[in-house]
Amino acid sequence: MIEIRSLHKSFGMNNVLQGVDLNVESGTSTVIIGGSGTGKSVLLKCILGLVKPDSGTILLDGEDVAKAERDAFLARFGMLFQGGALFDSMPVWQNVAFRLLRGSLKRPAAEAREIAIEKLRRVGLTPDVAEKFPAELSGGMQKRVGLARAIAAEPQVIFFDEPTTGLDPIMAGVINELIREIVVEMGATAMTITHDMSSVRAIADRVAMLHGGVIRWEGPVAEMDSADDPYLSQFITGSAEGPIEAVR
Amino acid sequence: MILTAPLAALGRSTLGLLASIGRVAIYAAQLLRHMLTPPWYPRELLVQILQIGWLSLPVVGLTALFTGGALALQIYAGGSRFNAETVVPSIVAIGIARELGPVLGGLMVAGRVAAAIAAEIGTMKVTEQIDALVTLSTNPMKYLTVPRVLAATLTLPILVAVGDSIGIFGGYLVGTTRLGFNPANYLHNTADFLETWDVVSGLIKGAVFGFIVALMGCFHGMNSGRGARGVGKATTNAVVSASILILAANYLLTGLFFTS
Fold first, then answer.
1. Distances, alpha carbon B42 to alpha carbons A102, A139, B146, B148, in Å
2. From B130, which residue of chain A is nearest by alpha-carbon distance?
3. pLDDT of residue A247
């Protein structure tokens, strides 16, 4: 379980997170929604230790992540980055097997390659993709490779940063389904940030809305539509009218 | 206001400069610490030795060849004013080994390598590849910076040694074909006056310049701003700062090595 307690983070005068409180139960899929620039990515990066919070605590299974042993802690995580963040200097299979080729999970290259090809197959890619370089792949394929890399070392927690951004609606649907299937199949805890409502409905068990630096609303996805929070309603319907100011 | 504005601007830029020096110093200290502690990535080191060392050979070699030739012409022209044309071989050798080999080699490598490193790491930064490395339990400092800095520090002395030989050969070519030197005498003169320390001091300079080049490339890449503009600026800053630091370090090292 991930517990976030009064998390604060500012960049200069910009107070991005102003006391975020959130619980993510093990084995559940939580989707964090919110407008662009509300600090969704910063929240994920705080949990991973990529950004240092100004104050507040983050507990993973009761252990403070700031004090945890970094390598062991990160070994429990997988992350799909918004743009894929594939290493363009190495072929696809080495990207997927990156963690298996070095560090504490290191194993023989042939075995790592087998696992990579298996994970690529799991995300719907054929083995011939393994030898290609990321730049040779389409956006949808890069996302799939990123997904395969995120799950390669069988992490307990997987983060998805805007998994459908930049994809056509059908490809977005395919990626949403894949994420849902994989998370259920692995029994992993998933945290997704997105502003794509079709993603939310496909992936989420629970939904949390980040607005004004705090969690504005949190609850099961089934209750999302009937909730009487004007901010949430405006976000779900995508209306220009409402409490969230939209600059025209 | 009007009177204090220039002072404020001066203060701001001075503070900015000092802060940058501090950041580079902290970065360098972290780098040295990571160099000494595992894990190491020998495969990455090998790749960087090829990238930085081997692929810089043509640039450094051509620079040295032309510089050696030009130096021979200049010293001949200058020396003839007081009938000292015969010093051409020895001055070419000393000038190349002590100064021009390491400095010009370092500057050429700064242009080629610091720019390439800053652009590569800067692009990795803006496309979140650096963050991805961290989430994959790999320290970017160990995986990206250490191999590049080590490779540059190890290969630049070799590049300088090759550059020295080619530069002296350039002087020899010009001396024997255009200035009428006897080939055997030219070589004899070169060997007689060149001391081991002339060459070794140049090689030490090379190692220091290599360290500077890769450090600046990595530092500016890691601190690159967003987008194409950010990476472009990081690349420019890497080359400019590496070049200036090389020239400053050269002065300090020359003072250290050759003044008693």
1. 11, 32, 10, 11
2. A85
3. 63
Residue of chain A whose Cα is closest to the Cα of B138:
A103
Q: Position B250: which residue type?
A: N
Question: What is the tens place of the pLDDT at every residue in B54-68?
Answer: 999 999 999 999 999
Query: Regarding the domain with residue range A22-52+69-76+158-248, which homologous superfamily does it belong to in the CATH classification?
Result: P-loop containing nucleotide triphosphate hydrolases (3.40.50.300)
**How far from A159 is each of A97, A179, B48, B134, CA to CA, in Å?**
18, 10, 32, 14
Residue in this structure with the two tokens 């601007």, named with its chain if needed:
B9
The phi and psi torsions of B136 (rounded to 5 degrees) equal -95, 25
**Domain boundaries, given as residue ranges, for chain A:** 22-52+69-76+158-248, 88-154
B131–A45 C-beta distance less than 8 A: yes
What does pTM read for this prediction? 0.89
CB contact under 8 A, B135 and A50: yes
Tokens describing residue A220: 């099961």
CA distance A108 to A106: 7
* Residues A190-246: tens digit of each pLDDT: 999 998 899 999 999 999 999 989 999 999 999 998 888 899 999 888 888 888 877
- B41 and A102 within 8 Å at the Cβ level: the answer is yes
Judge contact between B220 and B238, C-beta under 8 A.
yes
